[in-house]
Amino acid sequence: MSGPTSDGSGAEPALTPRALLLDFGGVVVETRSRPGWAGELAAEVHELLARAGFAGLTVTDVETDIRAGATACRYWKDSASRRYAPEEMTHRRFWADFVAADWPERARALVTAEAAPLCRRMGELSRERVTRPGIKELLAACRSHGVVPAIVSNALCGAVHRDHLALEGLDRQVAVQVYSDEAGVRKPNPEMIHIACRALGVTPARTWYVGDNHDRDVLCGTRAGAGTTVLMVSRSTGRIPYEVRQRPGVTVEDPRGLLALLEATWT
Predict the structure, then answer these.
(1) What's a single GO MF annotation on this record (predicted)?
(2) How many CA atoms lie less than 13 Å away from 66 in the CB half-sphere?
(3) Model pTM?
(4) Before 188, cis peptide (omega within 30)?
(5) For an engineered disulfide with 226, which of 148, 169, 188, 209 has Cβ 3.0 to 4.6 Å away?
(6) What per-residue confidence (pLDDT) applies to 13?
(7) In whole angstroms, what is the distance from residue 180 CA to residue 78 CA?
């Protein structure tokens, strides 16, 4: 593990934050795409349509459009990050406009009505999530030193993230979880951080915001006025859709590097 690096200003954070706001994917967990997830989801959607008496689409048709919708949604997310205050994609919009845009009206109406559970199922099937080494120690250390941890994360379905934290026993270690699908806005909209700050009774200036992407996280922390914006390196950090002028206050390799940075302020 390498130590933290600054953005070139030569200064590491001097003040202990009152709250530590963490992104989910890339910070709390590392994620990988599950091979075959679209086929599994397509089979379930096809069965849903069949139960309603609709037989106008094959499983292959459904899988093709699920894959197309997911790809188009990724491009939409990249373009949304250029806006100052983007709203989040709704579950209904994703299924009605991104997946089922060319389906017969009846089939489109059905998946739109079932959009929320379908997004949840897509989140469960599409990614494998592994809690990053050092996260449990980081959260425990924060609690013992009076730093309140929270989650602030973009998500097509935040319920999937809540389930993972509960499964790992981490849900009781964080004070609040803010997910974009539940809030209706998405990073880099600074309102994501402001929602957490209002819930915790802290000003953004007394928080550290930690994320793994330049165009979502570094930009959001800067816009929200976080005391320090920390970039934690993950598999997706190098994927930068376009140049972002804002730079993190400090960069760490992993949760253990973040803990070392905090410990320096405690001593």
Answers:
(1) phosphoglycolate phosphatase activity
(2) 27
(3) 0.94
(4) yes
(5) 209
(6) 79
(7) 15
pLDDT greater than 60 at residue 158 = yes
SS (H, E, C) the chain: CCCCEECCCCCCCCCCCCEEEECCECCCEEEEECCCHHHHHHHHHHHHHHHCCCCCCCHHHHHHHHHHHHHHHHHHHHHHCCCCCCECCCHHHHHHHHHCCCCCHHHHHHHHHCHHHHHHHHHHHHEEEEECCCHHHHHHHHHHCCCEEEEEECCCCHHHHHHHHHHCCCHHHCCCEEEHHHHCECCCCCHHHHHHHHHHCCCHHHEEEEECCHHHHHHHHHHHCCCEEEEECCCCCCCCCCCCCCCCCEEECCHHHHHHHHHHHHC
Q: Is the pLDDT score of 197 beyond 90? A: yes
The rounded distance, in Å, linking the Cα atoms of 253 and 212 is: 10
Residues paired with residue 140 on neighbouring β-strands, in sequence order: none
83 contacts: CB under 8 Å, gap ≥ 6: 189
Structural domain spans, the chain: 5-28+132-266, 33-127
Per-residue tokens: 29: 């967990």
What six digits make up the tokens of 33? 């795409």
Superfamily of domain 5-28+132-266: HAD superfamily/HAD-like (3.40.50.1000)
From the CB of residue 78, how many other CB atoms can be counted at a distance below 10 Å? 15
Exposure class string for 135-171: b at 16+ Cβ within 10 A, else e: beebbebbeeeebbbbbbbbbbbbbbbbbbbeebebe
